[in-house]
């Protein structure tokens, strides 16, 4: 089964590029930029990755962002992820990044987006990986902060395909961000939102009804509402599920309890992704390997999850068909 997972071409739709910052690279960039980290070694830093909830993770995640200072730093960050994606036979990726995590500490908007875009653009030619970039608003900040930043995102619409919503979910329902999402939809951006990871099923419903999202990131808690689950399945709204993240952040206590098979049984377009792989213990194939072993995924389940990743992507239909044809050649 692991051989099948490795061989299959796949798309990754839920990966925070800042969350792919491995400790080794963090120390390298800190040294390059003269930044003192509060850890003496890679091992000491990794020892901090024992999280009890989303907020504990975010505290160290934002601390790690501080080493990203120059366009080359963002390029190196993206390239490190892309090399791992290539090893996992990812042929298309739609990555998140958090502009406010950088602009709020004085890094010009152009520095991050230009460094990231240049790396992904190079990867199309050198690694055969296509991409889209999704800029996410930090939901723990006021909507006005997102509205203030939005003109910068719009100015770089040639590089940014979509708008997302991430960070601390509890206490920050999607309804708080209706104005900026409505504007993004009007301007032609794809829109997605994290919902139903720690927040209730109602947050998923708000993201669909009020923000008019094209995809739900995570979405586990939609299963608490049978009517909502049926509506999501009927509308074909994809869920970008992140098993190792769910385990690491205590969304599930044991990977054997993961609801992925229930999602498939209910007809949900679930996909498998790595979320913040440097912190959660694995890139996309690791998520497949461990989940498959934990819940006894069949070959058909794996094919369905990978097939869903292309169907749920924001690629043009003609390109989706090419990828799906290539995938079916493994059947």
What are the main properties of this structure?
eight-stranded parallel beta sheet, single chain, 50% helix, 17 helices, alpha/beta, 331 residues
Structure description:
50% of the residues lie in helices and 14% in strands. It has 331 residues and is α/β, with parallel strands linked by helices. It has an eight-stranded parallel sheet. The mean pLDDT is 96.
Secondary-structure blueprint of this entry?
Blueprint: H1 2-7, E1 10-16, H2 23-32, H3 42-46, H4 54-65, H5 71-87, E2 90-97, H6 99-103, H7 109-126, E3 130-138, H8 143-155, E4 162-166, H9 178-186, E5 190-195, H10 201-209, E6 215-218, H11 226-235, E7 238-241, H12 243-248, H13 260-265, E8 269-272, H14 277-280, H15 284-295, H16 299-311, H17 317-328
Parallel strand pairs: 1-2, 2-3, 3-4, 4-5, 5-6, 6-7, 7-8
Helix pairs in contact: 5-7, 16-17
What's the quick description here?
This protein is α/β, with parallel strands linked by helices and 331 residues long. The chain contains 17 helices and eight strands. The model has no long low-confidence stretch (mean pLDDT 96).
Strands side by side in the biggest sheet: 1-2-3-4-5-6-7-8
Strand-pairing-aware structural class: alpha/beta
Determine the fraction of residues in helical runs and give it as a percent range: 40-55%
Radius of gyration, in Å, reads 19 Å
Largest sheet: 8 strands, parallel
Shape: globular
Task: Report strand %.
Answer: 5-15%
By DSSP (H or I, 4+ residues per run), the number of helices equals 17
Number of strands: 8
Mean pLDDT: 96
Task: Spell the H/E element sequence.
Answer: HEHHHHEHHEHEHEHEHEHHEHHHH
Measured distance between first and last alpha carbons: 13 Å
The parts where pLDDT drops under 50 for at least 5 residues are none
